[in-house]
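I'm stuck. Protein, please.
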Amino acid sequence: MLPLTALKLVLVPSFIGLVSLAGKRWGARFAGWLAGMPIVAGPILFLLWIERGAGFARAAAVYSLAAVASVIAYSTGYAWLSRRWAWPVALAGAYVVWFLTALVILAASIGTIGAGLVAVGSLLAAPHALPKPVSIPPQAQLPRVDLALRMLTGAALTLIVTMLAGSLGTRLSGVFALFPIMSAVLAVFTHRNAGSDAVIAMLRGLASGLYSLVAFCLTLALMPSDQPAWVFAAAVAAALAAQAFVGVVHSQVDHVQVR
């Protein structure tokens, strides 16, 4: 238990740091795309598998899959609110939207196929639901103190969500594995430092990056093996493949638009 908890507390803040540095170098959209990877949900689902067994983790993964819709709802809420309000109002409103969407998902009796359709449908709708940046987002400044605060905030939120997840049953555990941790940290600091257009670009990138999380959860839910090493290795490989594919598609689209 202790090594796994320590892993999460190191892994998530480290990834937040890397994503933040990537955003400084390549822009907010690229940072959001990276943040869509299952860097928070993956360790939580792995811990649930080790502690509570394959059946529990697979059932939780199904609801994590459906909860992608909640993340899209959160992102959409934050993006539109950021047009008129500062980050405290945008964050509070986005969390309200997340909780309301999560309640709908929790109330539904949903299987793997249904959860997959909900997830993919929400991702396909995301580019139309999210606003577009009015102007090209400026390169965000990233002071060392800011970077440290992002990483500490990520560690604290990860610890809280992880402590809750294992005691809430499969549905709540799966949904809370996708509680907006990394996206909240990145959204708040991006919004505060670079403005609404930058946070919108980041959240649009996040939506495209979430296809990797869908691939991860589908593999976890459907792979018949009960060996966690094989199952999670396959899930990570599927997530990386999906991430690479979406990245290539978006680069081709951007190239066509520039021409």
Q: What stands out?
A: Residues 254-259 have pLDDT under 50 and may be disordered. Residues 33 and 205 are 4 Å apart (CA to CA).
